[in-house]
Amino acid sequence: MAEDPYSALGLQRTATDDEIRRTFRRLAKELHPDLNPNNPTAAERFKRVTAAYEIVGDPARRQAYDRGEIDETGEPRRTYQGASAGRGGGPDFGFGDIFSDLFGQRGPRGPGGGFSLRGQDMRYTLDVDFMEAVLGAKKRVTMPEGGQLDLAVPEGVTDGQVLRLKGKGGPGLRGGEPGDALVEVRVRAHPHFKRQGDDILLDVPITIDEAVLGGKIEVPTAGGRVSLTLPKGTSSGRAFRLKGKGARNPATGAYGDQIVTIEIVLPQSIDDSLAYFLNEWRKKHAYNPGRP
Q1: Cα distances (angstroms) measured from residue 56 to each of 26, 91, 108, 154, 259
Q2: What value does the mean pLDDT take over residues 38-58?
Q3: What's the predicted TM-score (pTM) here?
Q4: What letter does residue 268 receive in the DSSP assignment?
Q5: Does the pLDDT of residue 98 top 70, yes or no?
Q6: Structural domain of residue 270, as residue ranges?
């Protein structure tokens, strides 16, 4: 005796048409024989859910079944004299569309009459240096099976961003298109630079005399060294913004800024002349630095 189509799909009779379609999509993807080549249990279950969807996946045939006009196989019951419930009496129940969505095929069947399947997406990771992520780079990914994949790391790529390489994944089955390669980028830490959004952060040490007297210093950026003017009396923690010296935003094409934070570093040894000068200076110019 044929199985009730609702039970075969694991649904109640009150399920909506959308719920039936979503459930069949999920089951078809899990159970398809080409994805389970040595699993007779999955193959049998696939036949059952496919037969069930033939009945309740088409609204007209579903209504006929619910009214008792056709049985679980789609055949008219003896008490029913009409012909509208047959395969030709209602709209297409959409196997072609469903398998096209699931497996990437252009039609419901591939060469030789079997369903064609889109190849699997393959996932990889790629470690890049901080500056390679900021400036972009050409890299090569070694795949588990030993092959290699060349790709361009775009300028401004962020840690954890996934690059999709169309058609570089697993091969399709029975004429299906290949899957994609999904490459997750992992950015190594830099000893000096940090990234915050599209801005690049850098702490720069200066000497006590540069802090007091001011002057020009050179600071590194992703694009090379630039000159930064320090005003007299520059304190530790003061930040300077270098416009456009940050990372490129891949979505907008705009560049962030580089934020330079000053850190005053005293000499390793304080000689007598410096100690005497500061001691005399403190007697006349003591001040409150704002300690809590």
Answers
A1: 16, 12, 19, 48, 63
A2: 86
A3: 0.60
A4: S
A5: no
A6: 193-285
| Three-class DSSP category at 262 | strand
In angstroms, rounded to a whole number, what is the distance separating the alpha carbons of residues 108 and 26? Answer: 17
Specify whether 100 is located in the same domain as 12: yes
Residues 169 and 198 grouped into a single domain? no
Residue whose token pair is 């419930």: 85
CA atoms of 157 and 250, how far apart (whole Å): 7
Number of domains in the chain: 3
Task: Give residue for tokens 């007209």.
Answer: 60
Is 166 a residue whose pLDDT tops 60? yes
Whether residues 197 and 182 share a domain: the answer is no
Per DSSP, the chain holds a count of helices (H) and strands (E) of 8, 11
Q: What is the CATH number of the domain that holds 172?
A: 2.60.260.20
User: Looking at 155, 187, 219, which one is the last position of a domain?
Assistant: 187
Partners of 4 in the beta sheet? none
Q: Residue with structure tokens 């962030």?
A: 256
Pairing, β 181-187 against β 162-165: antiparallel
Asked, for residue 55, whether it belongs to a domain, the answer is yes
| Other CB atoms within 10 Å distance of the CB of residue 204 | 17
Domain match, 142 and 179 both: yes
Of 28, 22, 23, which Cα lies nearest the Cα of 7? 23
Percentage of residues in the chain with pLDDT exceeding 90? 48
- The tokens for 231 are 């005003």
